[in-house]
Amino acid sequence: MQALISLSTVSPSSPAVARSDRAVGSFSTNASKPSSFRFCGLRREALGLSITKPHGSSRVALSQRRFYKKFSASLKDNGVPSKGFDYDLVIIGAGVGGHGAALHAVEKGLKTAIIEGDVVGGTCVNRGCVPSKALLAVSGRMRELQSEHHLKALGLQVSAAGYDRQGVADHANNLATKIRNNLTNSLKALGVDILSGVGTILGPQKVKYGKVGFSDQVITAKDIIIATGSVPFVPKGIEVDGKTVITSDHALKLEFVPDWIAIVGSGYIGLEFSDVYTALGSEVTFIEALDQLMPGFDPEIGKLAQRVLINPRKIDYHTGVFASKITPAKDGKPVIIELIDAKTKEPRDTLEVDAALIATGRAPYTKGLGLENINVETQRGFVPVDERMRVIDKNGNLVPHVYCIGDANGKMMLAHAASAQGISVVEQVSGKDHVLNHLSIPAACFTHPEISFVGLTEPQARERAEKEGYEISIAKTSFKANTKALAENEGEGLAKLIYRPDNGEILGVHIFGIHAADLIHEASNAITLGTRIQDIKFAVHAHPTLSEVLDELFKLAKGASGSCVSSHKRSAQVQQHERCSNSRQHCKKNEITILSILVSGSHVVFDYLLMVIKLCNVVIKFLFNLINI
């Protein structure tokens, strides 16, 4: 399940819960097959293997066997640590962020260990993104089967659709287990040491791990990454019993489907669960502290999404209110929710429902890390970092060799953002400076239809433009103009582009419609590479595909012309094109030079042959005269 997207917007008033103390111990795993490097994306060329076969094929086979033997040995040893350390890199937390960092570290040749006090995969795999997508897959199928109008338009007739609650719950649990095993196996295959227990920083480049009540193990590392993630945030006055008043952790188990459920918060988590519950037959009531639903989205997209995702469904809502107190159901009484005005704090209403889901965001998971041992104080629970994820102490100084990624630093609370931050840190500790552009990281809400975006919203873009002194322009296109969307009978949707007309810079792209979460990556990659509108307009898209929504969107952009590119930073693609063009020109010059040498050389050879022929003619005449005498 996606968490908060805005920068450091969670402001928990209560401390994050302590990390789980599971089984203590450590185990190292050996990789027996180099092919397991597929997990970290290493290519064949990176392993030093030639794709051509010389004549001595047996010699090549022998060489490859020697290589594999040597390579397997290196995996078994998980690299050689820097002198004086047990590891080059120790990562505290084996969620998506820690896992991504570990795999990239191995690719860079770093001896790596990862400490986990719970289970590999963290929140995303076990209690978030992964199981929620299983539930949403079910809700999507149910909506299709329940929509008589939709099926009739396609010429289909289906009897009444039903579901087995336990079967749906098992599907979500089985998927989480499968992905967790995949992540664990990938770490094992690469020889990453998985150390079980709670990790605590003892001081510079020193960490202990273990279970409370048992002896701790102490290890040293040249660099340390904190990747402990987050937990559901529960405001004061709300009593969670895990049965009728629940968080997303409990809801993903789908232990029952209530007739009427109140969802506190209308962000990503609340929206996705409303999609699931209404598809399975529940009535939903949103409780939102701000004046409008879906406050984290571009206002225009949010307005359209409300018309499609909220209004036609069995959903009502209260905005501008706080749930000041929630009491679980007991003794035959329902869940009682007391609402107060968000501004005046005056009582507004009391609701009695079957269940309540608390979807008010997430709190950083940073208790017990030993931050005091490196003079670091959290800010609302988050570990303060700079743009390179380097930890900052309470005096504003950088803490050497300590980094923090993911939800624990609060920069962008998304699983893939944590992974990107981890990879960026590994680049740095490997000697290559790298700064991650967070405005290029996409976000998605997997409702039906989906919502996705990257970059700035329109209000954010206008505020920045006014501050920096430039104009912005907006381009929009509808899914109703897309052949593939109409073929699917899914024409409800909008794509929106925010850009600078003076230089073609893409500031933001927002999509609401079928498969929006997949479509957003073309825009995300364009921002990452610095590609301008005037360049991406020439990209070719297959027809008929949903990708043409983006094609049409970019082509609608006005004012960005190629003539303005020279006055701004050129895109990486243009620079690459120039390098290739220069390379081709250089090769062409070399070809002409070689040809001229060959031509001039042929003249020399011809003259030499002519001289030999003349000499032979003289010799023949001499012999002829000698015979006559």
CATH class of the largest domain reads Alpha Beta
Number of helices: 16
Structural class: alpha/beta
**CATH fold-level name of the largest domain:** FAD/NAD(P)-binding domain
Tell me the domain tally. Answer: 3
Shape: globular
Commentary on this structure:
- Mean pLDDT is 84; it is low at 1-76, 562-581 and 587-600.
- The chain is 37% helix and 20% strand.
- Strands 1, 2, 3, 4, 5, 6, 7, 18 and 19 form a nine-stranded mixed β-sheet that branches. It has a five-stranded parallel β-sheet with strand order 9-16-10-11-12. A five-stranded antiparallel β-sheet has the order 20-21-24-23-22, with helices on both faces.
- It folds into three domains: 87-230 and 364-430, FAD/NAD(P)-binding domain (3-Layer(bba) Sandwich); 245-360, FAD/NAD(P)-binding domain, CATH 3.50.50.60; 439-556, FAD/NAD-linked reductase, C-terminal dimerisation domain (Enolase-like, domain 1), CATH 3.30.390.30.
- The chain is globular, with a radius of gyration of 32 Å.
- The longest helix has 57 residues, at 572-628.
- The chain is α/β, with parallel strands linked by helices.
- Helix 2 (96-107) packs parallel to helix 10 and helix 4 packs across helix 8.
- This is dihydrolipoyl dehydrogenase.
- Keywords: Chloroplast, Disulfide bond, FAD, Flavoprotein, NAD, Oxidoreductase, Plastid, Redox-active center, Transit peptide.
